[in-house]
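If you are new to this repository, start here. Below is one unmodified record pulled from the training split, so you can see the exact layout before writing a loader.
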Amino acid sequence: MPSIVLAGHPCVGKTTFAHLLAKRALSRSTISNVVHISESTACPDQTKAECYSNSHMEKTTRAALKSEFDRAVVSSAANEEGSTTLVILDSLNYIKGYRYELFCISKAAGERHGVVWVMGSSADEQFNSASTESSSDVLAKKRNQERKVMMQKQFGQQDDNEKKSKSENDLDGYYEDDETMNQLVLRFEPPDEKNRWENPLFKVDVTSVSPWDRNGTLEVSASCDQTTNAMKTMEINDTSKSNDAAAEEKVPPQPAKKKMGSGFKRNKKKLPTGGKTVTGTAPVIDNVKQPSSVEPAGRQSVPSSMAKRNLAAASALDDTAASSTSVATKETQTMEQVIDGILDSFFSQRALTEGMSTLHQFSAESNALNQVDNITHRMNSEILKAQKAASVSAGVGGKIFVALTPNGDRRPINLSKPLYMNELRNFRRQFLKWIAAHPLADGTKEDRIADVYISYVESQI
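And here is the target side for that same chain:
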């Protein structure tokens, strides 16, 4: 069965996205069932806070999720209806090696496999351990605290059995504190589409679409949209004004330039024609006005580097305002459209094929090669005996019948020329090398081995 693995930071909306993904997948004719795997299904006796309370519990949780994923993919691949069932693994999946193990499970089953990176904002893609926390992580922590308070208030007056049943039905859960979320974010290894086990990779920014929940896009009135656009325009104008004022404040008044005296004086030379006295050899003409190095009091010079910096800031502000205005006026894409595009691209991919390194090898008996050697030696003798009985001559050929077993069926062979002992010896040697690399399954009968050898000889002549 095809499988989709979700990955992302804690509390960014993966479970909500998984519910809507399952709903949109079931609306297709090619999908009849969806298997949703999460911490609540893999570890039903533990809450999410307990699953990630320490490193040992994290390892146990990952092992349980992997076992559930393996069981769902392999069991569905064995059934005829496996291709119409979609497996969704809804968890953090923050370790690159762990995602590779999930890929190997799908590859061994010969099914499609894809990764969806659910991001709280576009800042998650540039996040690294050395940077500060992004705005989406701050919002995720706030959402986690609200969920924690709500669940504690809801289950505060109930006994332990009712709490456990409620926690089993609650698919979201919550993390114990912000420190746990910080550690999970720092250990998150972003997926990379260049890795073959993470290709195809779909990146979903949950804030770049219209407001939505697990049931689909939320209806927002036109008046609310106009109010939102007006607020965005006011924010842009306020931002531009504040940036202009800040730019003016950053330009300090420059003092007038003063001529600096040199440490030595040159000897003054007089021109023979009675010109003005100058320093050096260049004469000064009276009717040319020299540029003044002192600016007027109202106009003071500004360094060129500062002017370039201010111009760059102003152009960047104009581009930001223009892009924000265009985004506000452009129709926002819905989450249903994003998911439909993901499903279309995912189901257009080819199913994975199992490699030679993980291919199931059939075991053979210890004397299997000796048995094949005896059978092929007897078949060569039968071929020579049948050729002699049929009087096959060079350039004429003919049809001979070879007994697969001493008292069994006879198989016909069409020969275009007679076969000699040295040729049959070479065929037998090559066939034994092939059998050593590709052993037959246990219990293969003698007539079956003889039939395979005769087919090999026919392919060589």
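Two things worth knowing about this chain: Residues 12 and 120 are 5 Å apart (CA to CA). Residues 163-171, 221-236, 273-311, 320-330 have pLDDT under 50 and may be disordered.
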